[in-house]
C-alpha cells in the first residue's frame, strides 16, 4: 500500500519541486528593481522616479494589467517620458514584488486605496493615474474614491464594465481550497511556460509583439504560486465587482482620456472604453484603428499626447490617432 502511495505522490512532489526551482529562477532573471514601502501592515513595491528639474507634467502613476508587473509599463513609458515628470510605477498588491495585504485587495477598490496610501508615503499629493487593462478598473476606482489625489485619469484598453460570459477555467481552479494550492504549486508553471509565447503574442494581436517584450517585462513572474493565486482571485471577483461599482463612474470629475484599439480581442472596447466615455462627463474617447490590446506600446505617442492634454496643453488627440494609424500601417506593410 505504501509503495502505491509513494508511486502516486512522487510525480506530484517532483512537480512541486520543479515549481519551487523555476520560481527562484524567474526572480533571478527578473530581480526587483523597485523599493518596498510599508503602507500599513504590508509592503507595496514601486519604482519611483523623482521629479526632475525639467518636468513639464504633473506626477504620473502607472498601474499594470493582469498577469503583469511594473516592468510592463516601465517598458512603454520610462524612456519616452524621461525628464518630464515624477513617475511611480507600481506593482499591484500581490503582483510583481508587492505583498498582497488584506482581503480587500482582491478588489479594484482595495488596490486603489493601497496605491493612494503608497502615493502618500512617497510624498505624491496628486497625480495623473494611468491604468492599462485590469489597471483601468483600479484607475476608475481611484477616480471615484480619491478625487482629491486625481489630477487626471488615462485609461489604456481598460477593463471597467460588466461583460457577458465568464473567465478562463484555470482561474476558478486556482482559487479553490486545497485543490487550488496543488494546482498553483504543481501545474501552473509547466502549463504557463508552455503557453507564455502564444499568450503574449495574443495580447498584441493583430499587431506584432516587440521581439524583446518577454525578456524585458518578466511575464513569467506571474506564474509563481502566490502571484498566480492573487491574479486568479482578482479575476474571479472582477465581474460582480464591476456590476456593483461601474454605475459610480458618473461621480468621476477628473480630466479623463480613454485610448483603445478597435481590434482589441482581450477587452471589448464597445463595452468598456465606450462605456467609460458614456459614464464620465467630459471624457474623450480616442479609438485607434487596427490596434489591439496594447496601445501603451503601439501608440505610446498618443498616450503621451493624452497626458499632455490632461495636464492642460492644447493637443488634438484625434489627429494624433490618425498619425499613429498611418505609422502602424506603414510599418505593417514593410514587415509584410
Describe this structure in words.
By secondary structure, the chain is of the alpha/beta class. Helix content is 48%, strand content 13%. It has 13 helices and eight strands. The protein has an eight-stranded mixed β-sheet with strand order 1-2-4-3-5-6-7-8, sandwiched between helices. Helix 3 (108-121) packs across helix 4 and helix 6 (179-186) packs across helix 9 (225-245). The longest helix has 28 residues, at 2-29. The N and C termini lie far apart (62 Å). The relative contact order is 0.13. The model is unreliable at 1-5 (pLDDT under 50).
The chain-level structural class is alpha/beta
Count of alpha/pi helices: 13
Helix content: 40-55%
SSE string, helices as H and strands as E:
HEEEHEHEHEHHHHHEHEHHH
Query: What spatial order of strands do you see in the largest sheet?
Result: 1-2-4-3-5-6-7-8
> How would a textbook summarize the main sheet?
8 strands, mixed
State the end-to-end distance.
Answer: 62 Å
Features:
single chain
What's this entry about, in short?
The protein contains 13 helices and 8 strands. With 336 residues, it is α/β, with parallel strands linked by helices. Helix 4 links the parallel strand 5 (127-132) and strand 6 (150-156).
Amino acid at each position: 500500500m505504501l509503495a502505491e502511495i509513494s508511486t502516486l505522490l512522487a510525480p506530484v512532489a517532483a512537480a512541486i519541486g520543479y515549481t519551487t526551482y523555476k520560481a527562484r529562477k524567474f526572480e533571478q532573471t527578473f530581480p526587483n528593481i523597485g523599493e518596498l514601502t510599508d503602507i500599513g501592515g504590508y509592503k507595496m513595491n514601486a519604482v519611483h522616479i523623482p521629479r526632475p528639474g525639467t518636468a513639464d507634467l504633473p506626477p504620473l502613476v502607472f498601474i499594470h494589467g493582469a498577469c503583469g508587473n511594473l516592468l510592463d509599463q516601465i517598458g512603454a513609458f520610462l524612456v519616452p517620458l524621461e525628464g518630464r515628470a515624477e513617475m511611480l510605477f507600481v506593482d499591484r498588491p500581490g503582483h510583481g514584488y508587492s505583498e498582497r495585504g488584506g482581503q480587500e485587495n482582491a478588489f479594484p477598490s482595495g488596490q486603489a486605496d493601497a496605491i493612494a496610501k503608497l502615493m502618500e508615503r512617497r510624498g505624491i499629493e496628486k497625480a495623473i493615474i494611468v491604468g492599462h487593462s485590469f489597471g483601468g478598473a483600479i484607475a476608475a476606482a481611484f477616480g471615484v474614491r480619491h478625487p482629491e489625489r486625481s489630477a487626471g485619469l488615462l485609461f489604456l484598453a481598460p477593463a471597467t464594465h460588466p461583460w457577458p460570459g465568464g473567465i478562463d477555467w484555470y482561474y476558478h481552479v486556482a482559487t479553490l481550497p486545497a485543490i487550488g494550492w496543488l494546482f498553483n504549486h504543481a501545474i501552473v508553471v509547466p502549463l504557463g511556460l508552455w503557453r507564455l509565447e502564444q499568450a503574449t503574442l495574443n495580447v498584441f494581436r493583430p499587431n506584432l509583439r516587440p521581439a524583446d517584450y518577454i525578456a524585458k517585462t518578466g511575464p513569467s513572474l506571474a506564474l509563481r504560486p502566490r502571484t498566480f493565486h492573487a491574479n486568479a482571485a482578482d479575476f474571479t471577483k472582477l465581474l460582480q465587482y464591476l456590476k456593483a461599482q461601474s454605475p459610480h463612474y458618473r461621480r468621476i470629475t477628473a480630466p479623463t482620456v480613454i485610448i483603445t484599439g478597435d481590434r482589441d480581442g482581450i477587452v471589448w472596447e464597445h463595452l468598456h472604453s465606450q462605456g467609460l466615455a458614456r459614464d464620465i462627463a467630459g471624457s474623450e474617447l480616442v479609438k485607434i484603428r487596427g490596434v489591439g490590446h496594447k496601445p501603451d506600446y503601439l501608440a505610446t505617442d498618443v498616450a503621451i499626447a493624452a497626458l499632455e492634454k490632461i495636464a492642460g496643453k492644447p493637443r488634438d488627440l484625434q489627429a494624433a490617432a490618425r498619425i499613429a494609424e498611418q505609422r502602424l500601417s506603414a510599418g505593417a506593410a514593410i514587415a509584410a
